[in-house]
C-alpha cells in the first residue's frame, strides 16, 4: 500500500497535464475599478429600484454595515458581492435541484456594491430561506448570504457568510458548527438594528466587517 | 455504496501559486489583512453562482480603444488580447463574464482616485466587458497601457515603485467559488520583475502565467485594416461541478 501511495504521488508530481491547469493567480482589484461596472440597481436584489421590474417573492430586508481596516479606519472603495438563495431556500442555478423549493424568476440572488467614504455599505434584498446540506443529508444550512470582498490591498478575495439572529437553524448549521470559537460564530450573525434609510416595516440588519486585527471578521479559507 | 462528493468539492488554492496577502511597501495590504482564516464548509452556495450570457454585453463593450464605433481611437499601440478561460480540469468555461479595465497609454486611469499628473485621453474608453463563447474563448481590443509611478506611501520613500503596464481582469466563472480578480502583464517589460504585486507570487511559473504571450501575425497586415498587435492569454478558474452537489 505504501508503495502504491508513493507511485501515485510520483505520478502527480510529474503530471505535466494537471500542472497546466493550476488556477490563475489572484491580483488585487486596485483602487481604480470602474464605477460604471456597478449599476445603481446592483445593491437592490428585490427589484424595487428598477421601474417596472416585478418584485421578488419573500420578506424584503436591508443589510447594512461598515467596513473598516486593521486600525478601525473606514475601508473606502471596497467591493462587496453577495450571493444567496431565494426566500424558499433555492439558488437560481441549474445545479440546485431541490424540487421542494421553487425558483423565483424575479430573484437572481446576486448583488454588489462599493463602500462609501465612511466605509458604509448597504443592500436591499430578500431574506433567504434555509436549504438542505445535501440530497442524502438531513442537515440544513440556516438562512445566510455568501459574501466576497475585493479591494485595493486585498491580494486575494475574502469570503465570509452572513447569518441572521434568532434563527433556529443556526444551531445546526454545518458552517457555523465548523467554527469552534464561539465569539467568531457570533460575529457571523448580523444584528437587527434600525437604519435611518429603511422605510417603516423594512427589517434592517447590521453586519460590520473588520479586515484585520484582533477584532477581524471571521473570513473563510479560500 | 455509491461514491459521493465530499464537502471538499474544490481544492483549496495552492499558496505558492497565489500572491502573499501582505506586501511590504504596499500599505493597504497591511491595513487590510486578516491573519486567521476559518474552515470553509462547501455548500450549494459555493458550487452555484450568478450566471451571465452574451446578452449581458454589446459588441462595443469589447473595444476599450474608443468611446464608440466610428469615434477616434485613443492614443497608443492598438492591441488585441484573446484567449480562453478554462477550469482546473482543462475544460472550457463558457458564459464567463470578464470585466476589463486599465490605464491609458500614458499610465493614467479614468477614475477619480487617480491623482497622476500624466495626460488624460478623452478618446480612451478604459473599460470593457466580454463573455466567453461555448469554447471558452474571448477577445478584446484596446491600446497598450502605460506603466505608472505609484505614489510614495510617505514623502521621501526611496522605493521608487513603478507598476508595469498591466490590464485588470475580473471574472465570474461557473460558480461562486470560481470568482477571480487578476491582472495580465506584457512580455519583456523590465518593470515586471520589480513589481511588488506580480512579484509576490512565490512560484515563477505562476507569475509567468500572468504574462500575455506575443502572437506573431500570420496573415497580411492589410487584412484587418488597422492591424493591431496580437497577444494571447489563457486563464484557469477553480472548480467544475457537472453533477448535482451532494454533501454529507
Structure, described:
The complex is a heterodimer of chains A (222) and B (248). By secondary structure, chain A is of the alpha+beta class. Chain A has a single domain (24-210), classed as Protocatechuate 3,4-Dioxygenase, subunit A, CATH 2.60.130.10. Chain A has four helices and twelve strands. Chain A has helices at 2-14, 16-19, 174-177, 182-187, and strands at residues 60-68, 79-84, 110-114, 120-126, 131-132, 140-141, 144-150, 158-163, 191-192, 204-206, 209-210, 219-220. The two termini of chain A are 32 Å apart. With 248 residues, chain B is mainly beta. Chain B has one domain (63-237): Aromatic compound dioxygenase (Protocatechuate 3,4-Dioxygenase, subunit A), CATH 2.60.130. In chain B, 6% of the residues lie in helices and 23% in strands. In chain B, the strands form three sheets. In chain B, strands 2, 5, 10, 11 and 12 form a five-stranded mixed β-sheet that branches. A four-stranded antiparallel β-sheet of chain B has the order 4-3-8-9, with no helix packed on it. In chain B, a hairpin with a 7-residue loop joins strand 8 and strand 9 (180-185). The two termini of chain B are 14 Å apart. Mean pLDDT of chain B is 90; it is low at 1-8 and 242-248. Chains A and B meet through strand 2, strand 7, strand 8 and strand 12 of A and helix 1, strand 1, helix 2, strand 9 and helix 3 of B.
Amino acid at each position: 500500500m505504501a508503495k502504491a501511495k508513493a507511485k501515485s504521488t510520483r505520478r502527480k508530481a510529474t503530471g505535466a497535464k494537471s500542472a497546466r491547469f493550476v488556477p490563475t493567480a489572484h491580483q488585487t482589484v486596485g483602487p481604480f475599478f470602474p464605477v460604471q461596472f456597478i449599476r445603481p440597481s446592483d445593491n437592490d436584489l428585490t427589484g424595487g429600484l428598477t421601474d417596472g421590474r416585478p418584485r421578488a417573492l419573500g420578506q424584503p430586508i436591508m443589510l447594512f454595515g461598515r467596513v473598516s481596516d486593521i486600525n478601525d479606519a473606514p475601508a473606502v472603495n471596497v467591493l462587496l458581492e453577495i450571493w444567496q438563495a431565494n426566500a424558499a431556500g433555492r439558488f437560481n442555478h441549474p445545479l440546485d435541484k431541490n424540487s421542494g423549493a421553487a425558483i423565483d424568476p424575479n430573484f437572481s440572488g446576486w448583488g454588489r456594491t462599493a463602500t462609501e467614504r465612511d466605509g458604509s455599505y448597504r443592500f436591499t434584498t430578500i431574506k433567504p430561506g434555509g436549504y438542505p446540506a445535501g440530497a442524502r443529508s438531513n442537515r440544513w444550512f440556516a438562512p445566510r448570504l455568501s459574501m466576497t470582498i475585493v479591494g485595493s490591498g486585498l491580494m486575494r478575495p475574502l469570503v465570509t457568510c452572513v447569518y441572521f439572529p434568532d434563527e433556529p437553524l443556526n444551531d445546526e448549521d454545518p458552517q457555523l458548527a465548523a467554527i469552534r470559537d464561539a465569539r467568531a460564530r457570533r460575529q457571523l450573525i448580523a444584528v437587527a438594528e434600525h437604519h435611518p434609510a429603511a422605510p417603516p416595516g423594512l427589517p434592517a440588519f447590521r453586519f460590520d466587517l473588520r479586515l484585520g486585527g484582533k477584532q477581524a471578521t471571521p473570513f473563510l479559507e479560500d | 455504496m455509491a461514491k459521493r462528493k465530499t464537502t471538499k468539492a474544490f481544492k483549496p488554492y495552492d499558496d505558492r501559486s497565489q500572491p502573499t496577502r501582505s506586501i511590504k511597501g504596499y500599505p493597504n495590504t497591511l491595513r487590510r489583512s486578516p491573519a486567521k482564516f476559518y474552515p470553509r464548509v462547501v455548500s450549494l452556495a459555493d458550487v452555484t453562482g450568478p450566471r451571465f450570457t452574451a446578452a449581458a454585453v454589446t459588441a462595443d463593450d469589447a473595444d476599450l480603444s474608443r468611446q464608440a464605433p466610428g469615434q477616434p481611437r485613443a492614443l497608443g499601440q492598438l492591441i488585441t488580447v484573446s484567449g480562453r478561460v478554462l477550469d482546473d480540469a482543462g475544460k472550457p468555461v463558457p458564459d464567463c463574464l470578464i470585466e476589463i479595465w486599465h490605464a491609458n497609454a500614458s499610465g493614467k486611469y479614468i477614475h477619480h482616485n487617480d491623482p497622476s499628473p500624466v495626460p488624460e485621453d478623452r478618446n480612451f474608453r478604459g473599460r470593457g466587458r466580454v463573455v466567453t463563447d461555448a469554447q471558452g474563448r474571448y477577445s478584446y481590443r484596446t491600446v497598450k497601457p502605460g506603466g505608472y509611478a505609484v505614489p510614495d506611501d510617505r514623502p521621501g520613500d526611496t522605493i521608487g515603485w513603478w507598476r508595469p503596464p498591466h490590464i485588470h481582469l475580473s471574472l465570474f466563472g461557473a460558480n461562486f467559488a470560481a470568482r477571480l480578480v487578476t491582472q495580465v502583464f506584457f512580455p519583456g517589460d523590465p518593470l515586471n520583475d520589480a513589481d511588488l504585486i506580480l512579484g509576490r507570487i512565490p512560484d515563477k511559473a505562476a507569475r509567468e502565467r500572468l504574462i500575455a504571450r506575443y502572437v506573431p501575425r500570420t496573415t497580411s497586415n492589410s487584412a484587418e485594416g488597422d492591424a493591431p498587435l496580437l497577444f494571447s492569454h489563457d486563464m484557469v478558474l477553480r472548480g467544475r461541478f457537472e453533477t448535482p452537489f451532494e454533501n454529507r
